[in-house]
Write a structure and sequence with these properties.
Layout: H1 2-19, E1 43-50, E2 55-62, E3 72-75, E4 79-85, H2 91-100, H3 105-113, E5 122-128, E6 133-137, E7 146-150, E8 153-157, H4 164-175, H5 183-196, E9 208-214, E10 226-232, H6 238-249, H7 264-275, H8 296-304, H9 306-327, H10 332-343
Helix pairs in contact: 2-3, 4-5, 5-6, 8-9
C-alpha cells in the first residue's frame, strides 16, 4: 500500500513538472524567467527632477526583493536613470555619464541600446536637469508595459495590471507641482497612487521598493550628494513602508512619538497652531529654520578663509539657538495654545 502511494506521488510530481511552463522557472535570485529563459525584473518606476531645488530622484517598486540595488540611479546636477525589465545595471551609471556630457535623454537611450542584442527585453527611463526625458520599452516586455513623460518626470512600467498604474503615478506627481512639497515626498505619494491601482500583477511574489534623491546643495553623509536613500528590501506593503520610513526619519509629527520638549516635532506643532490661528496669529508667515552651514560653499570658505568661516559659523549657531528658543521649544505658551485649540476658538 505504501509503495503504491509513493509511486502515485512520484508520477504526479512528474506530470506537474512536465506541465509547468518555462515562464514559471526562476533564476538563482528567485525572479521569474520568460519563455526565452530571460529574468523578468519587472517594476514601475519614476524618474523626476525639482527645478526649484536642483534635486533629481529615482523611485521604484516591484515584486522582486532588493530592487534598490539595481534599478534607481541618480547623480547631483545630472539627472536620473531607472533600468528595469531584463535589467542591465550598468545602464544606470553609463546613462548618467552620458547626461553629464550633455547628451539629451533620447540620444542616451540610443547609445545605450545600440549594440544590445536583448534591447527588446529592456525598459529604461532617463531624465536630465533640463526636464528632458525619454523611455524605452522593448517589444518583449510583459503586458501591460509602457511609459509616460511630463515636464519634470518620466514613469515607466512593465507586467502591470494595466495603464491605470502609470496614469495614477503621473497624475499624482503632476498634482503636487508647485506645492512646495519636497521632491522625495511627491515621488513617494505618486508611487503610492500607482500601487493602489494594483501595480505589478505578479501577486504572491516578494516585494520591495526604493528611492534615491541627489542634491547638489547637500553633500550627504558620504559626500556623494545623495541626500536621501531608502530601500525596503522585502515587505508585504513596500511602498507604505517606504513612506513610513520617510516620514519617521524626517521627524514629521504624527509618525513618531512626541517625546521631546524641543526640536522638529515642536516646530511642526507650532506651525500647525499658527496656521489655524491659535499661536502668534500676528506672524505674517511661520519662519523657516536657519539654513545649514554644511554646504560645499561653506566648506570651501573654511579651507580658504578660516576666520570668516568661524564668524559665519558663530552667527549660524546663534541663529539656530534663537530659532530653537522661539519656535522649537514646547513652552508654557504652546501648552496654553494647544489646550485652547482643543476646547475653544482662536483669539
Amino acid at each position: 500500500m505504501h509503495r503504491l502511494i509513493t509511486v502515485a506521488i512520484a508520477v504526479t510530481a512528474i506530470v506537474l513538472a512536465a506541465a509547468s511552463p518555462i515562464a514559471q522557472q526562476r533564476a538563482a535570485d528567485g525572479v521569474a524567467l520568460n519563455d526565452e529563459g530571460l529574468p523578468q525584473y519587472s517594476t514601475f518606476s519614476l524618474c523626476a527632477i525639482d527645478p526649484a531645488t536642483g534635486q533629481s530622484g529615482a523611485s521604484v517598486t516591484t515584486r522582486v526583493p532588493f530592487v534598490g540595488r539595481a534599478v534607481p540611479h541618480v547623480r547631483a546636477g545630472v539627472g536620473a536613470v531607472c533600468t528595469q525589465a531584463s535589467t542591465v545595471v550598468e545602464y544606470g551609471p553609463r546613462g548618467l555619464d552620458l547626461l553629464a556630457k550633455g547628451v539629451e535623454p533620447q540620444a542616451v537611450l540610443s547609445q545605450l541600446l545600440a549594440d544590445d542584442q536583448q534591447r527588446e527585453s529592456r525598459q529604461v527611463g532617463v531624465i536630465d536637469m533640463k526636464g528632458r526625458s525619454a523611455a524605452h520599452t522593448g517589444k518583449q516586455n510583459g503586458n501591460w508595459a509602457g511609459s509616460r513623460q511630463g515636464p519634470t518626470y518620466t514613469v515607466q512600467a512593465n507586467i502591470m495590471v494595466g495603464p491605470e498604474v502609470v496614469e495614477a503615478v503621473a497624475k499624482t506627481f503632476e498634482a503636487s507641482e508647485g506645492t512646495g512639497m519636497p521632491l522625495a515626498e511627491r515621488m513617494i505619494l505618486a508611487m503610492e497612487a500607482g500601487y493602489a491601482k494594483g501595480g505589478d500583477r505578479r501577486w504572491g511574489n516578494l516585494q520591495s521598493a526604493a528611492i534615491k534623491i541627489a542634491d547638489p546643495n547637500d553633500p550627504g553623509r558620504g559626500n556623494d550628494h545623495i541626500a536621501l536613500a531608502i530601500e525596503v528590501g522585502e515587505h508585504p506593503e513596500p511602498v507604505a513602508e517606504m513612506k513610513r520610513i520617510y516620514y519617521t526619519t524626517g521627524r514629521h509629527l504624527g509618525y513618531r512619538s512626541f517625546s521631546r520638549i524641543e526640536g522638529n516635532d515642536v516646530v511642526e506643532l507650532k506651525r500647525m497652531l499658527h496656521g489655524v490661528g491659535y499661536w502668534r496669529p500676528s506672524l505674517a508667515a511661520f519662519p523657516e529654520a536657519p539654513p545649514s552651514i554644511n554646504t560645499p560653499q561653506m566648506q570651501e570658505l573654511r579651507r580658504t578663509n578660516p576666520a570668516e568661516y568661524d564668524k559665519r559659523a558663530a552667527d549660524s549657531r546663534k541663529a539656530s539657538a534663537d530659532y530653537t528658543r522661539d519656535y522649537a521649544t514646547f513652552d508654557d505658551e504652546t501648552i496654553t495654545r494647544a489646550t485652547r485649540r482643543a476646547s475653544s476658538t482662536p483669539d
